[in-house]
Amino acid sequence: MTQYAAIIYSHDGDWTSPEEAETTKAYAEFSENQAAVIRGGAALHPTSTATVVRVEGGRGGDVLTTDGPFVEAREILSGFYLIEADDLDSAVAIAAQIPGAWDGAVELRPVVQFG
């Protein structure tokens, strides 16, 4: 089986807030229904909590940090799942059940297995 990163792009929500209770419930149901193929995953805090790290001059250079998100966008990286599927068609069928796909997008990428 191939592992896929199911990268979720949705609105910039605070998944711990009461306003997101219905969405959080939908994610819990997805996780329960797909437990056999989920190998990991997490929701991310809002972009206001982000810190961007860059190393100026490459390895060993000056470390620069910027608070907040790097780009302004309607849909942001809000979480991910690591899923296992027989093939891309199977992964697409699983990704279509992720609530983020209903009003945002889910990007699937095969995972490179090292070692």
Radius of gyration: 16 Å
- Strand arrangement across the biggest beta sheet: 2-5-1-6
Low-confidence runs: none
Domain count, please report it.
1
Describe this protein with a few key phrases.
115 residues; alpha+beta; Alpha-Beta Plaits; four-stranded antiparallel sheet; 3 helices; 6 strands
What does this structure look like?
By secondary structure, the protein is of the alpha+beta class. It has one domain (2-110): Dimeric alpha+beta barrel (Alpha-Beta Plaits). The protein is built from three helices and six strands. The protein has helices spanning 21-33, 88-95, 100-103; strands at residues 2-10, 38-43, 51-56, 62-67, 76-85, 105-110. The chain has a four-stranded antiparallel β-sheet with strand order 2-5-1-6. Strands 3-4 form a two-stranded antiparallel ribbon. The chain is globular and about 45 Å long. The model has no long low-confidence stretch (mean pLDDT 91).
Summary?
It contains 3 helices and 6 strands.
Lay out the secondary structure:
Blueprint: E1 2-10, H1 21-33, E2 38-43, E3 51-56, E4 62-67, E5 76-85, H2 88-95, H3 100-103, E6 105-110
Antiparallel strand pairs: 1-5, 1-6, 2-5, 3-4
